[in-house]
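To assess whether the prediction recovers the assembly geometry, we first specified each molecular entity separately, as shown.
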Amino acid sequence: MNEPITSRQNAWFKRVQRAIREHAGEIVIEGPKQVADAFAAKWKPIAVVRSEGAGGTWLENDVVLSATLFEGLSDTKTSQGVLALFERPHHSADEILERRDSVAVALDGVQDPGNVGTIVRLAAAFDAAGVILLPGCADAYASKAIRASAGAALHVPIAASKHAELAAAGRPMLYADASGPTSQPPARDAVLIFGSEGSGVSKEIRRIAQPIAIAMSPRVESLNVAAAAAILLSRSYESRRR
Amino acid sequence: MNEPITSRQNAWFKRVQRAIREHAGEIVIEGPKQVADAFAAKWKPIAVVRSEGAGGTWLENDVVLSATLFEGLSDTKTSQGVLALFERPHHSADEILERRDSVAVALDGVQDPGNVGTIVRLAAAFDAAGVILLPGCADAYASKAIRASAGAALHVPIAASKHAELAAAGRPMLYADASGPTSQPPARDAVLIFGSEGSGVSKEIRRIAQPIAIAMSPRVESLNVAAAAAILLSRSYESRRR
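The predicted structure of the complete assembly is given in tokenized form:
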């Protein structure tokens, strides 16, 4: 067995660091269970990186870092000494919108990766066709978002898109907003849109979609975006099953 | 005007520090709007603490700290240079359970203050009687919980209680759990219980309450606790209004 890598100049160390920072073509998955799940979901591995203490061999050429170096990349509690670099999965909004037996979710300026990940988890729970990220959203493959998705980010189709592209698809579109009627959300063949934590959806969405509200106490102004998504996606799922 | 306080030995500085750490009899509220809302909600103020830069006088004897000292207590972005110490509000579980025209929420080992605060916000949105914190929950008045509640913690009755006390109240009790039937939650005169993020409700709750499930894809194991609360509380609210 080779000695663990100890240099911060090591190419793998720097590559993982870059992947964590840049949210570009390579995704970091932390923790042995999560890494195994990503393999099972047919994600394409680039490298498995382990802390010198952590047992098990994953690929032929696992990268083994000294404990100190590994801790510089990932907190050991979350990763349990194992993380892996995968190719970013590529889905298109069209691919998500093609599935007409369910609803698609679109997020518009949802900046908090925890909220994005929680909504990805909800999309899996209520069998939505996928999650479309409009401009201003956090990366659904950021570490915090992947953790909040509780593994769902490995399975749910996620695609980046633009307002004009979404409009061009010509599907019925509803956005969660207190100004709308408190009607039953559609069961299928529609897009449910959720806006930013502070200011709701953008002007562009207000122009191309209709509002839908959730009945609640008039003394409260708004719900957390993930709570609104939970309620509308759960209702859509229930009416789809009837 | 007096000079701002610069010493970390100052009694007020130490008292606020202690309140943040200890979650005992004194609560710290951060931000001018939040502090004003707490006054409006008739919370009992002990002192308003300002950073030397922050304008406005709140009480006759506002405590003014140097900017450096203030930053040691609170990040300035959240607080905008203003925080206040209030007496912890006291509600009892009995007081919450007395209100029979709605449901009460009980949390059992919900450790994340963000989840506790989000559920307090949901209790306000769906007009629940209050939130009962069973053993193992995060403090609903911790800074992170208050922020997640978006101000609702100022208005929603919150009480600490024990399993035996809750059982003794003799009210219908349902806990969210995948093992239960996917039935409609009660509209009123009942307690809806949500368990810990990892392992659900405790054995004690399983003994004294009935499970209720949320219909969802069999491929997903569980929902985030706040998402489950959003769905069940919203349904209860809707059937209460019919």
